[in-house]
Amino acid sequence: MNTDLAQSNVNESGEMITADGVPLRISLLRAKKRARNRALLLVAPLFLFILVTFFIPIISMLFRSVENQVVGDVLHRTVPLLQQWDEHGSDLPNEEIYAALAEDFKEAFENKSAGSVGRRLNYEQSGFSGLFRSTNRKARKLEPPFKEALIKVDKDWGDIDVWRVLKRESGSYTLSYYLAALDSSYTPTGEVYKNDASNSIYLPLFWRTLWMSLLITVLCLILAYPISYLLSTLPIKTSNLLMILVLLPFWTSLLVRTSAWIALLQKEGVINDLLVAIRFIGDDQRLTMIHNATGTIVAMTHVLLPFMVLPLYSVMKTIPPSYMRAARSLGATPFTAFVRIYMPNTVPGIGAGAILVFIISIGYYITPALVGGQSGTLISNFIAYHLSSSLNWGLAAALGTILLGAVMVLYIVYDKIVGIDNMKMG
Q1: What is the pTM of this model?
Q2: Same domain membership, residue 272 and residue 136
Q3: Which of 338, 350, 384 is nearest to 364 (CA)?
Q4: Distance between CA atoms of residues 201 and 206, nearest Å
Q5: How confident is the model over 92-106, as pLDDT tens digits?
Q6: Is 313 in the same domain as 177?
Q7: Secondary structure (DSSP) of 319-352
């Protein structure tokens, strides 16, 4: 009877079949496909969220850093004719180009769009904003010959360098923002030159951001390692109580924590008063610890310390105490056992905490803006400035793209040296 049942579950080609007559192999493939589709449906909301809040803004930033369509859109008559003009010569554009520019200004006056072109070109050479405003006000009164009329409105229309800049920046895309982000620029004839040290702003800020972020990461590691070790070795009730104290900054507003450091570090603050009280320094020798790099480093180390403690603690908690006892029983001193046995097992936690703190600190801007002053601000502060104040979104996007590229390079270097596979959160 059992033999007859087994034979009934096999088709003519020798394949096993299910009760509904479908080959078992096909039925298993269908079941795997259904399971895979269910898994995709479960992660689809998360993928959509990451796409909307992460990938699309990054793509938009990359596009904004090279986008330059406003000149061609507003001066749509002038730009095609300007491409035929030889900017390397010594002659101004001909009357046809001046006439096209006059027509574009008349249309821009109606659309109120001339100011946007002036602001864009003013990033390349100062004076363009005023030039476009003055010309726009008198656009309706322009009469032929337009070359003489425009030069009469503003003599800068007779400056060949103005036309060279206008032609260079008339394309749909530009690298000017990246050159500015690297403290370089174009000459009117289109050659690239690097600004001198006194006019360099962004490259020093990039270097300052990198070394301060690295220093903050090292300080967080030095402070977090003994704290995490203590938390992992204490009884669970005591470690939970101390963990609450570690997590307490998460429950306090960032502005409140930063304001507290301002009260502590300022010249008339608590720390200076204490140093004067114990006669460590004189009253006229109070330390300047705020509105400089020191204030930024101290405040950011305090804010980011829990991000180092938690990965270290989660990894240390999984290290069996028997490892240290075995090393001691084999003759190792406590120090040797700790360095040779315990510390290598904490490398995954060190890697996770270090990369977490470094990446967060490299993009921090609230705390440096409040306590950093002139010497403690980071590149992120200037990105925020160009986004909200100067409205130079192209330069802000270029700075952000370069910062993103630097982080990716450092991530690859970290992967080569330490290995992302060795990074664990617990």
Answers
A1: 0.83
A2: no
A3: 384
A4: 9
A5: 999 999 999 999 999
A6: no
A7: S-THHHHHHHHTT--HHHHIIIIIHHHTHHHHHH
